[in-house]
Every structure is written in structure tokens, then in C-alpha cells.
Write a structure and sequence with these properties.
Chain A has 463 residues and is α+β, with helices and mostly antiparallel strands. In chain A, 46% of the residues lie in helices and 12% in strands. In chain A, strands 5-4-7-8 form a 4-stranded antiparallel β-sheet, with no helix packed on it. Classes of the chains: A alpha+beta (463), B alpha+beta (552).
Chain lengths: 463, 552
């Protein structure tokens, strides 16, 4: 070692720079919210329900842009049809154009009984617009009874629907227009002498083809020449009992259901935060008085108030009851969230850091907004996500019993109510709205579950 | 002490063995009770039938009642001078024999007809009842059906005292009726509810609660009402004091189910809990078809239509607005496509197809000229209407209807139709039956889905509906021309003159768009094959069980 190396310069005596890296935090600091988000992201169930909620909102808000069918449009030829991707239809002449077939009434020969109808024939093509039947006169018949069945009658009893009867003996034809579908029908015509029916009739199997009339084709802007083939709109979710598109109605109905489901909880939880915050922070007599008022409100019956508001606002029959429903939900549901917030605030108010802040001269407003409210946000968010499905259910229930929307506006609950009466023959009318109610409620519940876990500071990640 | 500890304290003295015995006993008795609760729709041994009703009878007082449900019960428990037999023909009821000559009718009552408390039915009971019907203070809605009786109308309008009514009890068992004009259908009227007897002493003792509850009732018909739980059930049993009790086989007609849930009613029938179900809706009809049940159809006589409110404060008083709505409306589309119930006849006229004219059916002799379906013309009418009313836009109209699925469906059809074609907004006002009657009586509607069943077998039963004085003219249609037709029909017994006037009246209704006919109803029903002899009719009660019996 050389001597030189021991020479010291002034620079060597300069103060060392502060050891900034001595206690370096290796990983970036995580705020409460960032941490919660991280943990929420790890919870696959909660995350997928979050995506589901977003998808539902998009479906509601953007859906009608892509699916442009009118939810009030009644296509009476397509009543209660199952899901379909559009079908071709034949254009036929308007039903009014047929005169029918007339013949002579024949007297009943002595000692004979009323016989069966003969020569039952279909005039022209059998379509879903009309099936035109005619037959030969039966001696002694005063009028004829026409029946239609979906399957071949296997006994004299099983004739199917009594479609109607002719009025006079000369009338030997009948045009069936009753909700025809593209399928095979078995028609039976029985002669009657006014008091008794003939023992047997003739049965004819007829297969119908889907068709629309020229007038309908013109109204819809389709090619309106007889014999043309046109394409009918698709109904991926089927149609309801008035031939309205279920998909379009689900989208429109979602607006009502989700509007109530999201706006009502947001409003009553906001009221709850303010009310509960005041009670919890100031305490004392004010707290006691305010909380007794909250207890009183809890005791009020929801349904009764809903009806009172309806009357109070002069909501007549046939008008939408959504506003009174919202009001009743908000005015009667806030106490539970107010209680929750009050409890949380009371607890946090005693914590050391709040006391310290108070010692340092923090004012009430600062304390509330800087320390108290952010710390109760977790439980509040969880309450909110659980309140949403509850509100959706309430709306569905009230619309189901007829207190909500008025026709033709749909909501999921009202659609379920309408669908339930055709549950056996066309289940899709009930299943689709019911599925969407269940899906939405499940998604919000799972999201709430995930949020509760994520926001629980005791489970805060320590790695 | 909370409830659990309380129970435990009570249970302590009882040994555990006894406790097991007790719970087993409870379970056993619960199981035994089940089959007893599930009763069959028809029962041979007890000759009983069980039926369901859409609503409970709103008013069982024969003087004031108007609706089908009430008429069903009243006709089973009461009897007038004449009644209908098992073949739906008029035969003697309380009256043994009768004579009609010009404007005088005389009835001889049978001595063995008694009230259910044993007191004989006398001619005075008829005089009292008929005077009550036309009493302006009672304000019976059906009073106009009493108008063929001399002075009835003047009394009803408060111009003459009650005693001036053309009905006299010559003695206890002889009744003489003076008619205003010769009325061919008067005898059939006497089988109608408002012509039934009411006993003065009993009626007055009820303080206005006559037939409001079981203890306020007295009967002279084939059945008696033995229990009535309002809104829940009503039970009729055979009346042993009825003079013709021998021809009544059924012992019990029970109504254990009062619900307007059509599917629930059909399910009850499918499970064998009901004897018959009438008026099946499309969905239940499909269920009956799938189960390969035999379906019976019979026209129930009722005509259904959209009635307009013609009062001065409503826009529907405007003829051109009504014509605009008429010109876009096709009853065939409503019936065949929207309603979709087999057998319903699309409405074309107020007078239904089965009504008789002079020689043949009325509608064959007097075919109606329908208004043409023309959307361009409809829009012209609408423009005219707006000008006449001084409005830029027709305000939203309310359509009053029952809260049944079928009625709401029809209301929605009209809502969509008028919105699509004319741009008129319609609000659907669905109400319970009682409420609907109430609101229609007060004129609280623009349009109403109304219907009318015939009260007697003459087209006039429909024809006088829109006479300005008829209380059942809910829309207060008021036309001197129309009233003159009604006067002509009422004023003579010459069938040709009457039917000519009715024919012109029918056309007047179409030309003035007084109503929009919807359909003539057919009742599609299913019934237990063991139930025989039920009578269906178009006037009065649509279903009569009086002559029915249950076979094995």
C-alpha cells in the first residue's frame, strides 16, 4: 500500500448523502383499494360475476341498438312461437276474398238416419292464413259442425276443437282461420239435424304451410305478390302471447328492472350514509332521537306505502307505477344502511388514529371525510351489492302482482307473470325472463360475496 | 322465559314414551285427514257436484242484481211464475196455469208453493217485488225489463206512485197483470230474476241486508244456500220444502273454489275435483285437447263489444273519432288471431246470430252492412275528429276491462291496434269485476270492454241497450232516432213491424259506430262424464243444475 492512499482531501469530510435506500420498500405500496382490487382479481368467481354484471349492463344499454325489433309490435301470426331464426313464408291473397261454397239442402229420405259427410276437400292451398274446406250436402242436415284436431282422432270422442258450425243447410263450406301453425291438422265435419248430430263424420288430414297475406306483406314492406316467398324476422328467444319478440322485451324489461335495482339502492344507501354518519359521529341525544325515527320507519309496511304513494301521486290505472315503487323503496329501506354506518362510525370514532387526529386539531368535517367515511366504504359497498338483487326481486315481485309497469311496457317480473299461464305449452315465455332475473341476482350476490372478502381489512394480504 | 324453555317446562312431566305416542298419533291423524280434504267433483252416493266460480256473487238480491254469477245462484234458489224445464221450454213455476189476452195476463198460483220457512208463496209477494223493482228509490238497474208492465216506466221515473203499477193480487193465489202494450215475450220475462217473488215482511226485517248473508235469505226455489264464506265458498243444498222437490235429484251444489285463475280451475278439474268447467280459455282448451278430453261447445248467448263513452266530457262522443277506430278494426283478426278460442264468432252486429226474426233467424232476414276496413279513410275521420274537437292530438284514452287474462289480452290488442294505425295512446285500466261494474256505472272510462247476455228471447233484449233511458247504457248514448226505434219495437206485437225496426236499429249502431262488436261468445267446456242433464241456455243462468244427476 502506498502512502498516497492515506491522504485525505476535504471532499472526504463532506457529509455523507442521506441513506435513502437503507429501508427501501421493495414492492410498491398498496393502498387499501388497490389491495382489495388485487384480491378481488384473484377471486375467479367474483371476477366472472363482475364481468357478467358489465355484460348485463351492456346488453341493456346497447342491446336495443343492435336488436332493433319493436318490443310492442304484435305479430298475431306468430303467437307464442318458440325460439327460431326466421322462416320463409308464402304470400297469399287476403282471407276476405272467398265466397264459400253453397249447395242445395237435401231432404232426409224416409226411415233413414243422418249419414256421414262425404267429399271433404280443401280449396286451394292450405296455409297458416286459412284452410278452406267444402263438402257434399248430407240429406236431412240442417247445419254442420266442424272440428279440428292436432292428432288423428282415435275414437268418436276425440274430435278436437269445436271450430264452429254453419248456420244454414245450404252452406257447405267453412274457412278455418283460427291460430293456424305450419303442421298437420285433422278436420272432421259432422252433419246435424238441429237436435242430434250424425253418429260419424269424415276426417281429412291437412298440412298447412306458413303464409302471410298480401296486406300484411305490404305493411311490412315485403314483396306483395301472391305466390312470392318472403323471409320473416328471426325471434331467437321466441315470441309471447301477442306475438311480440321476447328478446326485444327482455332488453326493454331489463331497463326497468336494472333501473330500479341500481338507482334505488344507490339512493337509499346515500341517505343511510349521511343519516348514520351524523348519528354515529355526534352521538348523544341526537343519536337516540334519530335512531328511534329510523326504528319507526323500519316498522312501516312496504306494500301498503307503495299503494299509498300510487294513490297519492294520482297514478291512475294503466299508468306506470315505477316512480312510486322507487320512492317507497328509497323511503323505507334506508334505516338498515343507516344503522350499519352508525355502528361502523361509532367503532372507528374510538380508534387511536382518529383520537390522534382530533388531538392535532382536525375539524369534524375533515375527520368525517378523511378518516371515517373511507373506512366504512367496505361494508357499505357490500351492502350495496346485496341490496341490488333485493331491489330487483322487489320490482319483479311487484310487477308480477300487477303493481309495477303497465302494458305494453315489459319488465322481467311482469313478463314472468304473463309467461306463467302458458308455462306448459310455451315454456320459453316464462323461462327467459326468469333466467335473466336469476342470472342478475346471482351475479350481484356473488360479486357482493367477493367484495366482502376483498374489502375485509383483516384479510389484507401480507406477502 | 322464551318459548323454547316454556315448552320444555311443559313437556317435562310427560314421559318420553308418551311423547312418542303423542307425535305418532298426531302424524297418523294428519295422514287420515288428507283423503277427507280431497273431495271429488261429483259424488254418486250423495248426489253432489262441486263447481268453481270466477268471483263471488256481487249481489244476490233478485230485485237489484245484474250479473251472471249472481243470476246463476238466484235462479237455483228462487222461482218465478214460470220457469224453464229440462228441455229449456217454459213451464209453470209458482203459477199453475195462466191466461193472456191482449194487454191482460192472469196467473193462478199453486197452493203448495211455499217459502223455505213454510209460509205459502202468495200473489202479494209478486206485487211487492215488482213494485220494488220499479221503485225509483231502489234504483234497480234492471227496472227497464219491467217496463212492459203498465205504468212501470212512469213509476220508475217518479211520475206515478208505486201503487199504480199494473199488477194486482185478486186474492192470495190469483195475480193479474196489466201490460202497457201487447208484448209477445212477456211470459218468458216472468222466468227472469227481477220478476221473482219477494216476501214483504221478511224483506223489511232485514234492514237492507236482504240476501247479503245466509241468515238474511229465504228461498222458494229448488235449492237453498246453506253456507256462504264471502270470497271463499258458497254451498247450495236441495230445498226440501220446494213444491217440485221430487224432480230434483241433486242434493248439493258446492262452490268450494272462488278464483279467477283459469289454470288453477282447469287443474282442479283434471284432478277430478270439479264436476265441470265452462268458458275454457285458449290455454286450458289446449290442455283439454292434450288430455284427449271431449270438448262441448254451446253458445252462451253473450255478445261482447267495445262500448264508447258518449258523455259530453269525453272525446269519444265524437262520431268521426269513433268511425276512425271502426275503420281500422277487424273483429276477425281479434277473434281468430289474438283471442284464438275455438268457436267464437267474430262480432259483426249487436244482435247475435241465434236470435229469431219473423220467420227465420234475424240475421238471415236482416243482414247487416258492415263498415269498410280502410286505413286511409280512418285517418281522414281522425283529422275531422281533431278539427271538430279543436284538438291537435287525441289525448290518451283509457280502456276499462276486467282483470282477467283474456280481457287484458284484448285490451292490449286494441292498445296496439289504435297506436299503430291512428297514433292514439290507450291506457289499459284492468279492474276486478265489482270495480269494473262500479267504474262503468260512474262513466269513469273512455272505452270499455263490455258484454251483454240476453234476458229474454227477443232481439230487443239487446236492442234496447242503448236507449237513452236504459241504466245499462253505460256510455250514455243518446239518440232520438235510436230511441224512436226502441219505442216502435216496444209498442206493437206485430212481428214484421218490430223486426223491421230492429233491422234499422242494427244498421244505425254500425253507421253511428255506437259500439265496436268484438265477438259472440261460445263456451267451450269439459265435464265429468258421470254428470248428466245439465241444461245450458242463452237467457238467464247459462248453466242450470236443477235437473242434473250423477250417474255411477
Amino acid at each position: 500500500m502506498s502512502k498516497q492512499s492515506f491522504q485525505l482531501s476535504a471532499a472526504d469530510f463532506a457529509p455523507a448523502p442521506p441513506a435513502t435506500h437503507a429501508e427501501r420498500i421493495v414492492r410498491p405500496s398498496l393502498s387499501y383499494w388497490q389491495d382489495a382490487w388485487l384480491r378481488l382479481k384473484k377471486n375467479r368467481r367474483a371476477l366472472s360475476s363482475l364481468y357478467l354484471v358489465i355484460a348485463l349492463l351492456l346488453f341493456t344499454l346497447l342491446g336495443p341498438w343492435f336488436w332493433t325489433q319493436d318490443y310492442t309490435l304484435q305479430d298475431l301470426d306468430m303467437i307464442s312461437q318458440g325460439p327460431s331464426w326466421g322462416s320463409a313464408a308464402l304470400v297469399v291473397e287476403d282471407p276476405g276474398a272467398w265466397e264459400g261454397v253453397r249447395g242445395d239442402a237435401l231432404p232426409l229420405p224416409q226411415g233413414q238416419e243422418l249419414g256421414a259427410t262425404t267429399q271433404l276437400t280443401v280449396e286451394g292451398a292450405a296455409t297458416t292464413q286459412y284452410v278452406r274446406l267444402y263438402w257434399n250436402a248430407v240429406p236431412g242436415a240442417q247445419h254442420y259442425l266442424i272440428y279440428r284436431n292436432d292428432h288423428a282422432p282415435d275414437s268418436g270422442q276425440d274430435l278436437g276443437l269445436p271450430l264452429g258450425e254453419t248456420l244454414r243447410p245450404e252452406e257447405l263450406s267453412f274457412a278455418d282461420r283460427l291460430q293456424l301453425r305450419p303442421q298437420t291438422y285433422w278436420y272432421t265435419v259432422i252433419a246435424s239435424d238441429g237436435l242430434t248430430e250424425a253418429a260419424s263424420g269424415t276426417t281429412l288430414a291437412v298440412t298447412t304451410e306458413r303464409a302471410i297475406t298480401t296486406t300484411q306483406a305490404r305493411e311490412r314492406g315485403l314483396e306483395a305478390t301472391v305466390g312470392a316467398s318472403v323471409q320473416l324476422p328471426a325471434h331467437p328467444f321466441g315470441t309471447d302471447y301477442l306475438g311480440r319478440d321476447v328478446l326485444a322485451r327482455i332488453m326493454e324489461g331489463a331497463r326497468v328492472s336494472l333501473f330500479i335495482g341500481i338507482v334505488a339502492p344507490l339512493l337509499f344507501i346515500a341517505i343511510g350514509i349521511v343519516y348514520g354518519g351524523i348519528c354515529g359521529y355526534f352521538g348523544g341525544t341526537l343519536d337516540i332521537v334519530l335512531m328511534r325515527i329510523a326504528d319507526f320507519v323500519i316498522a312501516l309496511p312496504f306494500l301498503l306505502f307503495m299503494i299509498l304513494f300510487r294513490i297519492g301521486f294520482g297514478i291512475g290505472p294503466g299508468e306506470s307505477g315505477i316512480f312510486p315503487m322507487l320512492l317507497a323503496l328509497v323511503l323505507l329501506s334506508w334505516p338498515s344502511s343507516a344503522r350499519l354506518v352508525r355502528g361502523q362510525i361509532l367503532q372507528i370514532r374510538g380508534e387511536a388514529y382518529v383520537q390522534a387526529a382530533r388531538m392535532l386539531g382536525a375539524r369534524s368535517l375533515y375527520l368525517i371525510f378523511r378518516h371515517l367515511v373511507p373506512n366504512v366504504m367496505g361494508p357499505i359497498l357490500v351492502t350495496l351489492t346485496f341490496a341490488i338483487p333485493m331491489a330487483i326481486f322487489t320490482e319483479a315481485f311487484l310487477s308480477f302482482i300487477g303493481m309495477g309497469v303497465s302494458p305494453p311496457t315489459p319488465s322481467w317480473g311482469a313478463m314472468s307473470n304473463e309467461g306463467i299461464r302458458t308455462m306448459l305449452s310455451s315454456p320459453h315465455e316464462l323461462l327467459f325472463p326468469a333466467f335473466f332475473i336469476s342470472l342478475t341476482v346471482l351475479a350481484f350476490n356473488l360479486l357482493g360475496d367477493g367484495l366482502r372478502d376483498a374489502l375485509d381489512s383483516r384479510l389484507r394480504s401480507r406477502e | 322465559m322464551n318459548t323454547t324453555t316454556l315448552t320444555r317446562a311443559l313437556m317435562q312431566p310427560i314421559s318420553s314414551y308418551l311423547r312418542y305416542c303423542l307425535s305418532a298419533l298426531l302424524l297418523f291423524s294428519a295422514l287420515c285427514a288428507l283423503p277427507a280434504l280431497a273431495q271429488e267433483g261429483v259424488d254418486f252416493a250423495t248426489q253432489s257436484v262441486r263447481i268453481a266460480q270466477g268471483s263471488e256473487p256481487p249481489n244476490l238480491n233478485s230485485i237489484k242484481s245484474t250479473d251472471q254469477t249472481s243470476i246463476f245462484y238466484i235462479e237455483h234458489v228462487m222461482e218465478g211464475l214460470l220457469r224453464k224445464n229440462a228441455r229449456n221450454e217454459l213451464v209453470g213455476g209458482v203459477a199453475e196455469r195462466w191466461e193472456m189476452e191482449g194487454t191482460t195476463a192472469r196467473f193462478w198460483l199453486r197452493q203448495n208453493a211455499v217459502w223455505s220457512d213454510g209460509v205459502p208463496v202468495t200473489a202479494h209477494d209478486f206485487v211487492f217485488a215488482w213494485r220494488q223493482v220499479v221503485n225509483p228509490e231502489v234504483a234497480a238497474e234492471y227496472a227497464s225489463i219491467m217496463y212492459p208492465v203498465k205504468n212501470a216506466e212512469a213509476i220508475n221515473q217518479g211520475k206515478l206512485p208505486l201503487e199504480a203499477l199494473g199488477v194486482t193480487a185478486l186474492d192470495d193465489y190469483t195475480l193479474e197483470v196489466e201490460l202497457e202494450t201487447p208484448t209477445g215475450y212477456f211470459l218468458s220475462l216472468t222466468s227472469f230474476m227481477i220478476y221473482y217473488p219477494v216476501r214483504q215482511d221478511f224483506y223489511e226485517a232485514q234492514n237492507g241486508r236482504y240476501f247479503a248473508d245466509v241468515r238474511n235469505m229465504i228461498f222458494n226455489g229448488p235449492f237453498t244456500i246453506t253456507s256462504w264464506v264471502h270470497g271463499a265458498s258458497l254451498r247450495m243444498e236441495k230445498n226440501p220444502t220446494y213444491w217440485d222437490a221430487d224432480s230434483v235429484t241433486l242434493n248439493v251444489i258446492d262452490t268450494p273454489y272462488i278464483t279467477n285463475d283459469e289454470q288453477a280451475v282447469f287443474n282442479l278439474f283434471k284432478d277430478g275435483m270439479l264436476a265441470l268447467v265452462n268458458n275454457l280459455a285458449a290455454e286450458q282448451l289446449r290442455g283439454a285437447l292434450d288430455n284427449r278430453m271431449r270438448i262441448y261447445a254451446h253458445p252462451d248467448g253473450s255478445v261482447f263489444y267495445v262500448e264508447f263513452n258518449h258523455r259530453d266530457d269525453r272525446v269519444t262522443r265524437n262520431l268521426n273519432l269513433r268511425k276512425a277506430m271502426q275503420a281500422v278494426y277487424d273483429s276477425e283478426e281479434l277473434v281468430y288471431k289474438a283471442i284464438g278460442i275455438a268457436g267464437y264468432i267474430p262480432g259483426r252486429s249487436l244482435i247475435p246470430v241465434y236470435m229469431n226474426g219473423v220467420q227465420d233467424k234475424f240475421r238471415v232476414e236482416y243482414p247487416e252492412q258492415p263498415a269498410s276496413l280502410d286505413i286511409e279513410k280512418a285517418r281522414e275521420y281522425l283529422e275531422l275528429a281533431k278539427q271538430e274537437l279543436g284538438l291537435d292530438e287525441i289525448p290518451p284514452l283509457s280502456i276499462l276491462c276486467d282483470d282477467t287474462n283474456g280481457a287484458i289480452l284484448q285490451a292490449q290488442y286494441f292498445q296496439s291496434l289504435f297506436k299503430r294505425t291512428l297514433g292514439i295512446d290507450i291506457k289499459v285500466d284492468a279492474q276486478t269485476f265489482k270495480q269494473r261494474l262500479d267504474k262503468s256505472g260512474n262513466g269513469n272510462f273512455d272505452l270499455i270492454l263490455a258484454g251483454w247476455g240476453p234476458d229474454y228471447e227477443d232481439p230487443l233484449t239487446f236492442g234496447d241497450l242503448f236507449a237513452s233511458w236504459n241504466v245499462n247504457n253505460k256510455g250514455r248514448y243518446n239518440s232520438p232516432v235510436y230511441d224512436a226505434y226502441v219505442r216502435t219495437v216496444q209498442g206493437t206485437s206485430d212481428q214484421q213491424v218490430r223486426m223491421d225496426a230492429l233491422g234499422r236499429m242494427q244498421q244505425h249502431i254500425i253507421d253511428e259506430a255506437v259500439i265496436l262488436p268484438n265477438f259472440e261468445r261460445v263456451s267451450n267446456g269439459v265435464r265429468d262424464p258421470r254428470l248428466q242433464g245439465v241444461v245450458f241456455s242463452q237467457t238467464g243462468a247459462s248453466t242450470t243444475f236443477t235437473y242434473a244427476h250423477v250417474t255411477e
